[in-house]
User: What shape does this take?
Amino acid sequence: MFNTPFVLLFALLLTLPLVILFAPRILPPRRVTISLPDELDDLALFRRAARSTVHRPGSISRLGATNAKPKIAFLFLTNTDLHFAPIWEKFFNPKKSKHRNFNNLYNIYIHADPDSDVKSPGGVFENRFIPAKKTQRSSPTLISAARRLLATAVLDDQLNAYFALVSQHCIPLHSFRYVYNTLFRPRIESTRFPAPLSFIEVLSEEPQLWDRYIARGKNVMLPEIPFDKFRIGSQFFVLIRSHSLIVINDRKLWRKFRLPCLNVDSCYPEEHYFPTLLSMEDPNGVSDYTLTNVNWTGSVNGHPHKYTPAEVSPELIRRLRVSNSSFSYLFGRKFSPDCLLPLMNMTESVIFRG
Assistant: This one.
């Protein structure tokens, strides 16, 4: 018979590979923190962007042209390859001649988690990656990444007037021509040049609001953010330039939202910071709704519904466009990577016809 120490050692050797294999799935992931060097590096970027000139109609662009048209900056926040790059490529570079007057009315910026080994899809995305830092879901690192994108776009081109944050799981639901006209039509058609809106979801009466507010501790957000000022909303948005500057200039609210959460299950800083900040700073300047359609029916662990190839159809695209506001949804989320082929088959006949 084997003695007891030998049996224990043998059992340990047998179970060790299983522990190594399953421990990452059982134990909570290690929380990514923002180091002091990273924070100082971001602050330097934000200060440079804040000092940049805000574009106004008729001002001189970086290329020296006067009365140049405003642009849309598309900010891709990703930790995987850009699965739907071929669709976005056709979105930015349509072949139809009637759309050519919309060329060069956009810029692209990509923040890819440096640990994810994201490959450039080439084309319009080539050389559009910005210096990035590690990100993690349900952590302030996603706020930092979005601010980094905003600051880079503000600094890069004074003609960037709208800033659309999207993910690798997003697709356009209309042509670029439609998106551009939707965002800029109120300013183009009115002789009074009314102030444009930022399109960001701002919710104040959700049942989970209190749990999210106290995720860092009961009174931690005070006095800067009382509970009646706390908001939640969508992670993805379309901001005007002045609101982008508010975001990159903020220090007060950021000091609260960068704190670690005690209750990780109720902690989604990327869904709290932007709606709270903008609703406090300029409540009349935000739409309170997003232009990105996300299906939260049957969500799992805070993740929205992910569309599969079997669900992709012209009817789905038309349904995703419908909203309760006066604006159509411009982007749709969340699609699995294997939806690329059926979506590509509908780009000219369905998606870009709207």
User: Anything to note?
Assistant: The two ends are 78 Å apart (CA to CA). Residues 16-28, 55-66, 188-193 have pLDDT under 50 and may be disordered. The chain has one domain: 34-353. The first helix runs from residue 4 to 26.
